[in-house]
Amino acid sequence: MERLLQQIINGISLGSIYALIALGYTMVYGIIKLINFAHSDIYMLGAFIGYFSMTTLKLGFIPSLLLSMVFCTIIGVVIEKVAYKPLRHATRIAVLITAIGVSLFLEYTTMAIAGANVRSYPPLTGILTKSFMLGNINISMLQILILGITIILMILLQFIVKKTRIGKAMRAVSLDSDAAELMGINVNTTISFTFALGSALAGAAGIMVGIYYNSINPLMGMLPGIKAFIAAVFGGIGIIPGAMIGGYFIGIVEVLVSGYSNSLYRDGVVFAILILVLIIKPTGLLGKNSREKV
Amino acid sequence: MLEIKNLNVHFGVIHALKGISLTVNKGEIVTLIGANGAGKTTTLRTISGLKKPTDGSIILEGKDITNTSAQERVMMGISQAPEGRRVFSAMTVLENLELGAYLRRDKNEIARDLETVYHHFPILADRRKQIAGTLSGGEQQMLAIGRALMSRPRILLLDEPSMGLAPLFVQEIFNIIRDINKAGTTILLVEQNASMALQIANRAYVMETGSIVLSGTGSELMQSEDIKKAYLGG
User: Fold this and answer.
1) Where are chain A's structural domains?
2) Coil/strand/helix, residue B155
3) Chain A residues close to B148, C-beta within 8 Å
4) Which pLDDT band, with edges at 50, 70 and 90, does A294 fall under?
5) The dihedral formed by the CA atoms of A251, A135, A149 and A207, expressed in degrees to the nearest 10
6) ipTM of the shown complex
7) How is the beta sheet containing B155-159 ordered, strand by strand?
8) Average pLDDT by consecutive 10-residue portion of chain B (234 residues)?
9) Within an 8 Å CB–CB cutoff, is residue A169 touching chain B?
10) Comparing C-alpha atoms, which of A77, A99, A93, A54 is closest to residue A210?
11) From A288, which residue of chain B is nearest by alpha-carbon distance?
12) Chain A residues within an 8 Å CB radius of B145
């Protein structure tokens, strides 16, 4: 039982990372029906910016987190403007292939600039190195920090989407972009804003993975990216709470599989979940079966 | 108030609007009737700025607005309740109406217009917290019209408001359209239900395959033998 709880605590940290990345996938899918494969590389860039901020610039964690989020926001918006906006009326497969192209571009540009080597985040200092026991369960301050930041970001996101003007515009565009345009909503601005939000969350996930797992490299986005995408599909792609639930579910399952069976199976199990979801309920946990519009 | 001159619209190689011209005067109800595929919806979409014309001009109160964006046109007073209603199905009735006033900042006036909409459509007031997708077709149509009114339009474009509705609802919707017009909103109404449309319209245009083939007052067209044969069932 204690071992189970311990694994779940560890799974929550990983789940937080997946959930933050999954939110970007799901919001962008919701608004332009694109699986943005470059999203996982924005997360990778977030990790690198955090690294340079903490080493070269010698900034603390929170300033580095903010810097990383701001940088990723800008990159996300630029990618949308340069790569996806010109294809607004193109076929979906054309945009999808472009997204894969952008993904490779980001990975290998980073490799050209920063090198292909694995880099280690600077060691933690102060309170973040501490951990405490709750019964026989070990909880580190770092895990609390990751969960805390994730929860704050999710509450902030819910507030933006539910309560603000631009959030209402986002929901309107994702439900019916033509009708939204008839309300006077600027669809392009709204799409840019969606990319900005998703990328900021990916940036936060990137730097948190850096301090949690310590090592980063230019191709680090690939696997977590796909897993976060699976999390989004599991929760119901296009549905924000679905991505949150999916992220934690996938994170916890992965840690449980590593803990109780062979850690080599953890990726396989996650992909098996994807296959099962697609067979049993392709719309995901919170998805409703919807008719295709004609 | 609204003048369209020699409007041409293409979809790829298809010439959807072949140089149509029409005028809507202040305070009028003008209807555009014709068969499916004649280009009625395309005309409204072009007026709203969702489709760019290849040639011709759209003039609102003397100002050429052909090259303005959809948002600018909403701001200048053009509003549309589109074909098929297109309400935001996962949002509440109130949220839909609030989105209709998206570009406005005058909170008190918005609240007043909300009351006006509820006055025209009392059922929407009862259902303000309900999810729009769960409304009946007629109620959704009312919501679509109410939402379009929330931008406080000078000219309201209505695309097939009677489509798919029970006869009782059709009568009700048309009565309300007349009320909205009496309250001071100019209306351009696209309809397949020609007899109903001609009854409430001051003037009418008949479209066939991308051109306007006939125009006149509502009562003139109702008397026309061609119209009777083609659109009014003998």
Assistant:
1) 17-221
2) strand
3) 182
4) very low
5) -60
6) 0.91
7) B78-81, B155-159, B186-191, B29-34, B203-208, B211-217
8) 94 92 95 90 95 95 94 96 94 95 94 94 94 92 95 95 88 92 95 89 92 88 78 65
9) yes
10) A54
11) B90
12) none
In a mutagenesis test of the B interface, which of A183, A239, A283 is the best target, namely the one with the most B β-carbons within 10 Å? A183
Chain B residues touching residue A179 (CB < 8 angstroms): 82, 86-88
Which chain B residue is nearest to residue A167, measuring alpha carbons?
A: B99
Task: Sort B49 into a burial class: Cβ within 10 Å, 0-12 / 13-18 / 19+.
Answer: buried
Say how many residues make up chain A.
294
Q: Is B39 helix (H, G, I), strand (E, B) or coil?
A: coil
**8 Å CB contact of A184 and B148:** no
| B79 contact A CB<8A | yes
E runs forming strands in A125-262: 131-134, 137-140, 215-216
Nearest Cα of chain B lies from the Cα of A177 at a distance, in angstroms, of 10
Q: Is residue A97 within 8 Å of A36, Cβ to Cβ?
A: no
> Which of A175, A176, A184 is nearest residue B102 as measured by Cβ atoms?
A184
Q: In chain A, count H helices and then E strands.
A: 11, 4
B77, B119 in Cβ contact below 8 A?
A: no
Residue type, B20: I
Rg (CA), chain B: 17
pLDDT at B234: 55
Cβ-based neighbours of A215, under 8 Å, separated by 6 or more? A118, A119, A120, A121
pTM: 0.90
Beta strand pairing call for B29-34 and B203-208: parallel
- Residues from chain A that touch B100, judged by Cβ atoms under 8 A, are 183
For each of the domains in chain B, give its residue range(s) and CATH number, in order of start: 2-87+154-231 (3.40.50.300)
- The pLDDT assigned to A133 comes to 87
Q: Is the pLDDT of residue A243 over 90?
A: yes
Contact A250, A234 (CB under 8 A): yes
Residue in chain B lying closest to A185 (CA): B71
CB within 8 Å: B102 and A186: no
- B88 contacts A178? CB cut-off 8 A: no
The pLDDT value recorded for residue A292 is: 47
